[in-house]
Amino acid sequence: MNIAIHKSWQPYLKEEFSKPYFLDLMRFVETEYKNTICYPPKDQIFNAFNYCHFDDVKVVILGQDPYHGEGQANGLCFSVNDGVAHPPSLKNIFKELETNLDIPYPESGNLMRWANQGVLLLNATLTVRAHEAGSHQKKGWETFTDTVIKTISDKKENIVFLLWGGYAKKKIKLIDVEKHEVFTSGHPSPLSANRGYWFGNKHFYYTNTHLDKSGLDRIIW
């Protein structure tokens, strides 16, 4: 399978591409895409890296699994293609944006505009079988994306990590909290958000405040 990942990431990840687990993973993904419907489209699997280059990373948002409905997933966590109805978690992200930064609820759920500003929108698992949530978990993707998180932590400074929900919070063990800023909260999914674990976390404000202190451009959310 062709690994279409931007050249800025190659020096840091190329060793992974030849490891047995990754070769097994690519064979699995190739077979899955050949025999069943999977998301995102094959040429968008590595979009998180292709729209946010290594040198540009300022913020990392972690998701768990791509959307598994038709036409939704585009390779960026929590993001959907233009014109696609906003899933519940994304609606709650945008509602928090509205109240946190007093900006209008966005029309498009495509978060490419965030990625282009240095927000790495990384799912722990980069592929999924249609209508089968979690179907590509524990096949090797998590090993790869854990390496990505640790590499960013090791090689960069002053990154903001936004860890939403129990699964993402576990990734803190991969992050050097002495040199990076980590904000945690409940997940934006309705179950968590409606229990009071999401709304009011002010993560978007805190992120931009940290970027200001670091002398970096704010994210235009």
TrEMBL record:
E.C. number(s) listed in UniProt: 3.2.2.27
GO terms, biological process: base-excision repair, AP site formation via deaminated base removal
An MF annotation (GO) of this entry: uracil DNA N-glycosylase activity
Record key words, sorted: Cytoplasm, DNA damage, DNA repair, Glycosidase, Hydrolase
Broadest EC class assigned to this enzyme: hydrolase
Subcellular localization(s) per the UniProt record: Cytoplasm
The keyword Metal-binding appears for this protein: no
CC per GO annotation: cytoplasm
Catalytic activity: Hydrolyzes single-stranded DNA or mismatched double-stranded DNA and polynucleotides, releasing free uracil
Signal sequence range: none
SUPFAM superfamilies: Uracil-DNA glycosylase-like (SSF52141)
Catalytic residue positions: D65
Function: Excises uracil residues from the DNA which can arise as a result of misincorporation of dUMP residues by DNA polymerase or due to deamination of cytosine.
Family assignment from sequence similarity: Belongs to the uracil-DNA glycosylase (UDG) superfamily. UNG family.
Designated name of the protein: Uracil-DNA glycosylase
